[in-house]
UniProtKB/TrEMBL annotation:
Binds 1 zinc or iron ion per subunit. The gene is hutI. Belongs to the metallo-dependent hydrolases superfamily. HutI family. One of its GO terms (cellular component) is cytoplasm. Its cofactor is Zn(2+); Fe(3+). N-formimidoyl-L-glutamate binds at Y158, N332, G334. NCBIfam families: hutI (TIGR01224). This is Imidazolonepropionase. Residues 77-418 form the Amidohydrolase-related domain. Fe(3+) binds at H86, H88, H256, D330. It comes from Thermoactinomyces intermedius. GO terms for molecular function: imidazolonepropionase activity; iron ion binding; zinc ion binding.
Amino acid sequence: MEKWLITGANQLLTLQGAGRPKTGKEMNDLGIIEDGAVAVEKDTIIAVGTRKEVESEARKRWGSWEKVNHMDATGKVIMPGLIDPHTHLVYAGSREDELNMRLNGKTYLEILEAGGGILSTTQRTRAAGIDELVEQAKARLDRFLKNGVTTVEAKSGYGLSPEHELKQLRVTKRLNEEHPVEVVSTFMGAHAVPKEYQKQPDAYVRLITDEMIPRVVSERLAEFCDVFCERGVFSVEQSETILRAAKAAGLIPKIHADELEPTGGAELAARIGAISADHLLKVSDEGIRALAKAKVVAVLLPGTAFFLMAPFADGRKMIDAGVPVALSTDCNPGSSPTESLLLMMNLACFHMKMTPAEVITAVTVNAAHAIGRADRIGSLEPGKQADLVVFDVPNYLHLTYHYGSNDVERVMKKGKWVV
Ligand code: NIG
Ligand code: FE
């Protein structure tokens, strides 16, 4: 049984008190311990505190220091393994050609309507075999890990038929088994209307509710169900139909809400009891009030605004209104091809007016709540899974200050050093 004693951290960010998503001023409280230490046994944290506290706790439990591995983190910052609660991890190919089209004046929706965008990635993903998709996604997971990310949510949505949606979800399952990063699965058959159903979108909605959802549930391939609720994609009414069917079958609803226009997706998320509402670049004031009241986690994706050259979601306004905010990369081939959650944290500070402490809460505790995992991950507390990152920076403010860099030194996942 492997034992680790990590000591000397300049700042150990515990994020303790993670029983519910953090809101308002709580988002600035990182539970910082100076001269911080952590003791880990197997895959679990057994003690957190100052060096003195943790050493005495560990000695009581272990008796001697024999067979205890020691890591000196003097001068460093330690925090929970980062969590990315919104990615489109599994797909084939890339779309740099569309970036070029957008930089020459076309819009994202124009490209999608002309059969590009999500539909072009769907074509390539359908043509790819499981092994090929696994290999491409593993390369992305390697990059996530180097960025300190130890858990990601991953959506289907580039299959858009029963056969290919299930194939994508089987890839997700294999990734979770074969790669150290933990992968949490979301079914998103409602990512776009496929070409074959362009003229009868409601028939595609029925295919999702009557065939895809039951198969996803019976094969236990996902925990969550997401819908791209947007004009020209799935209406509020269609989204509600899909999410109600998903909920009745045991999947937890999530929504791509108010990304390109104020569509009413946030209000739907609150009404239906979604665990998160994501994007929200164009959310209305009523939408924000509804999210705050229902305590739906707002997952904000600054990389998407950056890459689509759109105005950023108003993170400041949402936090001040009492909405629990999380951050994510949205990692996908069309609107945010990145695995750098660290860059997202920087963008959120500089373009969403979030504070350096709030962005850390947003990629740990609140991200864990957005994927229903806060009982195990997102904070450093005794009994929690031993997922942590050691940054080679003297204090957490450096993560915002020294921008565009990667100061991750080591990453522990389930008690094992994986970076
Ligand atoms: O989250 N909004 C919809 N889906 C993705 C984009 C996917 C793509 O362009 O391939 C998003 O931004
Ligand atoms: Fe997305």
